[in-house]
Amino acid sequence: MKEAELESQKERLNLKEEELDALKQQLEVSQLKADSGEGAADAPDKGTEEAAKKQELEKKEKELKEEAERLAVLKKELVAKETAMAAEKENIEAKLTELEATQKAAEETVAVKTKELADKEKEVLEKQQDLTVKMAELEEK
Predict the structure, then answer these.
(1) What is the pLDDT averaged over residues 82-88?
(2) Nearest CA to 55 among 27, 19, 21, 32?
(3) Which of 11, 17, 36, 138 is deepest in the core (most CB within 10 A)?
(4) At what angle do helices 2-36 and 46-140 cross, to 10 degrees?
């Protein structure tokens, strides 16, 4: 889930950066038009309109820069979280490997002890049989 959230935030950052670039281009075009006087003869309020558009674009550019900075901070935080998650995953994998080794050693110990017990049971049975035979021999005498 964290990875999906991370990807979503990265996509938002990329979209905001693209939006900022588009607004910068619009601002440059507006500035070029204003500098060249293009459209000035079309309407008397064209200069005022261009100035208002320029001001609006500058405002949007400032907002987008702030958003880009905020998203850059988020991106750094996400990278830090990714790094922490990778370290945590590595730690968990190491613990799992250790537990598997412990389990294997325990299984081997159980197998050895089970064999030792079976051998002792066999030995006890043999001694019991010997005793039974000896008791039978003593009873016959």
Answers:
(1) 94
(2) 27
(3) 17
(4) 170
